[in-house]
Structure formats: C-alpha cells, structure tokens
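Workshop exercise sheet. Pairs work together: one partner reads the sequence aloud, the other fills in the structure field after running the prediction. Swap roles for the next sheet.
Pair: D.N. / O.F.
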Amino acid sequence: MTGKSAVLATDLSTASETMIESETGLNCLSRIGVDRIHLVTVVPANVHSGMPGIDFEKRRKRGLRRYRETVEAAGFDVETHVVRGTPHRRINGIAGAVGADLILVGSRGKSPLENRVIGSTARNLARTTVVPLLVDRIERGVDDPETVRRHLFKRTLFATDFSENAERAFETFEYLRHATEEVTLVHVRSPKDDTGDEGDVEARLGELEDRLDSWGLEARTDVRRGDPAAEILAAEREHEPSTLLLGSRGRSRLRRLLLGSVSEEVVVNATGNVFLVPPPRSA
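Structure field:
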C-alpha cells in the first residue's frame, strides 16, 4: 500500500483525547496504509488571545504537543496545525492543502438535545467534506469515556443503492480490507426503487460478494424494504458493525444541504462509527 495521510481534528476535549489515545484505533489507521497524521485544532474566530485570563492558542499548542508524542510513539509521522477560524472550513482547507486521504473526527454520539445529535463540527464536516470522513463515536455521559467500537473497520456494514457514488465508497475496501474481517452488504428497496427486480438486486449484491471474497473478506447480504435511512439504522442495530460505510450522496438528484438526506440521517443517528465517502471534488 502506498502511504496515506490523515487529518485528525481535535478540540482537546475528552472525546478527542479518547480517540487519539486509542491504541487499537491508531493501529487500524496504520493497517489501512496511513503513515502520516496531521493533528489539527482550530481556535474559533470569536476567541481572542487578549481575553482576560485566557490564552487558547498556547493551551492548544501544549495539548497538541502531548498528542503528538502519543501518535509518534505509535509509529506515525506527525505534523501539528493550530489555526483560527470556522472549524469545519479550516479542517477542510488543511485537508486539501496537505492532500489528505481522509479526515478523522471524534463525536460523543447522541446528545440529550434532539437537534444536536452530534457535534456541530462533525455534522458540518459530514455536509461539506471532499475527502472520506470517519466519525469515531465516543461514549457520552461518563467521566472516563471509551470508544463505542474498539475496532474501526473489523466488521463493516456497507449500505448501497448501486449508485455511482456507492460504487466509489465500495472501492475503499481496496485498502480497508487490511483492517476488515467481515462485511454486511445492505440494500434497501423503497417504494420508488428503480434498481430492478429482486433477482437483479441479488445478482448485483452477489457481484459485490465475489469482489469481497477475492480480497479474502467474509460477506453476507441483507435486503430490506422501507425507508432507506430507517432501515440502514435498523440494520446497524441488528448487526452491530464496527463502522457503517456509505457514499455521502446517493441516487437522489436533490442536493439538500450538500449531503444526501439518507446519509445525513445516518450520520446523525448511528450508534457506532460512520465512514462517509463523498463524490469527487469536480462533482
């Protein structure tokens, strides 16, 4: 595998610390070919260094130094970036500038506030990222949180509507397979489904199974009926994968919020990790 680079975004919170100090998580990144990590923290534009008793930039630089030692000890080359501005915009900007292959961000999962289910930065990144985005779910409501799923990609649930971008997401198994053991292929037949009859669907899923088998991955299929987002989330609850993989824009031609409505609902409501693969930048 050629070396890959990842932007690991942190706000120095407990959730970020848990994500960075997860030895298993760092090992998963290494196994999929990541050898360089860019640690990024963003000082919000409305925070000023002259505010009484507060020096956010110095505090964040100290925090990044500690994180850098942890990540370097795990065998990665590390660069740190302390920048100012709107978090998701600066994180996307750095990912583009350094040619990152993916962005990793921690999330404390479902919030008691219904309309703020994941952190605003993670949600905004999900809507706007131009490189694959991994939302690493962290326990909430405890003083010493752990990652919700210990392994990032060991058991992957891949949701497909057979669209071009779903195929693009599937192609990530070319490198995810080095950290994956089993895959559940999920397709949801909705009332407006135009992907063919059941025989066609089974045949197309069978082709994906064969490709996974050629990579040495155990695969199974799950064909469901109903609302796509609701059924994908139901499949996650049933199969309990390490990570749910899907394209960030599917068959819908409506570009609501720059993210397919199904993908957004899955990111917001999934229990475990979500790996979103966006269309090419030119799209």
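Discussion prompt: The mean pLDDT is 82. What would you look at next?
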